[in-house]
Backbone:
C-alpha cells in the first residue's frame, strides 16, 4: 500500500537503523547518526491521494527528499520531518498526538472514530477540506443479483475494509426493524448481518461467493462496473482533509503549515483575471468579477479607462472571459496564482 507523508518533531532514529525497520530516516550526512530536533509537526497522506498531497507540500515550500524504502524524511528548510504512513493509520497517529498534522481521506477518519470514538484528549480535529480525492463509500451488490435495497442484505454476508462504518450502517438499518426479502428482522441486541473484513480486493468478493454485498469506496465507478457490481446506497461521502492533533507539540508551527496549505489550495482554485475597461462600464464588469473581497482598480494613462485585477474561480474563468468581452472589456488576461494567503 502506498504510504503518505506526515510531519513530526521526534527524537531521531539512527541512520544505521536495522534494515528490518524498513526506513533510513533522513537525508544522508557524514555523521553515522543524528537526532530530529524534538517532537514537532507531522502530516500524513493516503495512497490514492499521494501525488496530490505531494503537490500541496511542494507548493507550501516543504522541501524534502525521501530515500528509497524510507518512511521518514527530514524537511530541509523547517524544524520538522515527514513520516510516511498508511492511510488508515493516520487518524490514529494524529489522534493520539504522535503526529501533529495529517492528510488523509474523511472516510479513514470516520472509520477510526467508529471503532475508537474521540474523547476530550484523543481524536483528530479537521482543519481544512483540501478540495480533492472525492469519492463515496457505497453498498454494492452484483448487477445481476437479487438484492435491490440495503435492507435486502440484512442477515447476509458483507465484505468490507470499513468494518466500523459498515457495522454502524447495518446496526441502524436493523434497529429500524425493517424486514428483508429473506424474512429476517433486525433487532437492537445482536447484529444479524455478518460483516467480514478484507484488507483489499473487496470488489471481487461477490463474484467469488464470499459476500452477498460489499461496502467499498467508489471514485469513478470503473472498477465497480468492471466487476459486475452496482451501488445501491451511499454510506458516506469522502474527500481529502487536513487534520491536526488536539495536543500539537508546536501549535505555531502547525498553524504556519496549515496556513501555507490553505494558500496553495486557494491558488489551485483561483486564477487572476486582468482587463481594461472604460469607466462607464466598470460597474457592470465588476459584477462579473467581484473578486474574493473586491477587485483592484487602477487608473490607466488614458482618460476614463481603468485596469481591473480580480481573483476568479478557475472553473468559471472561460464563462467570465466571455461575459467580460460582451461587456466591453479589452486586453483580458488570465494568470496562474502560485500561492495565496
Residues:
Amino acid at each position: 500500500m502506498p504510504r503518505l507523508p506526515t510531519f513530526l518533531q521526534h527524537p531521531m532514529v539512527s541512520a544505521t537503523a536495522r534494515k528490518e525497520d524498513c526506513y533510513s530516516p533522513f537525508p544522508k550526512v557524514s555523521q553515522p547518526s543524528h537526532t530530529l530536533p524534538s517532537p514537532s509537526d507531522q502530516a500524513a497522506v493516503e495512497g490514492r491521494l499521494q501525488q496530490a498531497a505531494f503537490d500541496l507540500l511542494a507548493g507550501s515550500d516543504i522541501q524534502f527528499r525521501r530515500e528509497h524504502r524510507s518512511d521518514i524524511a527530514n524537511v530541509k528548510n523547517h524544524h520538522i520531518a515527514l513520516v510516511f504512513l498508511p492511510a488508515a493509520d493516520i487518524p490514529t497517529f494524529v489522534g493520539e498526538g504522535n503526529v501533529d498534522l495529517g492528510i488523509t481521506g474523511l472516510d479513514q477518519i470516520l472509520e477510526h472514530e467508529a471503532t475508537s470514538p474521540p474523547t476530550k484528549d484523543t481524536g483528530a480535529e479537521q482543519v481544512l477540506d483540501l478540495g480533492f480525492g472525492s469519492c463515496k463509500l457505497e453498498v454494492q451488490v452484483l448487477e445481476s443479483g437479487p438484492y435491490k435495497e440495503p435492507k435486502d442484505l440484512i442477515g447476509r454476508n458483507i465484505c468490507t475494509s470499513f468494518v466500523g462504518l459498515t457495522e454502524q450502517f447495518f446496526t441502524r438499518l436493523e434497529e429500524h426493524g425493517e424486514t428483508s426479502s429473506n424474512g429476517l428482522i433486525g433487532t437492537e441486541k445482536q447484529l444479524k448481518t455478518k460483516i467480514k473484513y478484507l484488507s483489499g480486493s473487496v470488489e471481487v468478493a461477490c463474484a467469488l461467493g464470499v459476500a452477498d454485498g460489499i461496502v467499498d469506496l467508489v471514485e469513478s465507478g470503473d472498477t465497480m462496473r468492471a466487476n459486475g457490481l452496482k451501488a445501491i446506497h451511499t454510506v458516506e461521502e469522502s474527500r481529502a482533509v487536513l487534520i491536526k492533533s488536539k495536543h500539537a507539540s508546536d501549535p505555531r508551527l502547525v498553524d504556519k503549515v496549515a496556513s501555507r496549505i490553505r494558500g496553495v489550495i486557494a491558488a489551485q482554485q483561483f486564477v487572476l483575471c486582468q482587463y481594461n475597461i472604460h469607466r462607464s462600464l466598470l460597474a457592470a464588469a465588476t459584477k462579473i468579477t467581484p473578486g474574493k473581497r473586491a477587485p483592484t482598480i487602477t487608473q490607466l494613462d488614458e482618460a476614463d479607462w481603468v485596469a481591473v485585477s480580480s481573483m476568479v474561480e478557475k472553473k468559471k474563468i472561460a464563462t467570465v472571459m466571455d461575459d467580460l468581452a460582451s461587456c466591453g472589456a479589452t486586453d483580458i488576461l488570465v494568470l496562474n496564482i502560485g500561492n495565496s494567503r
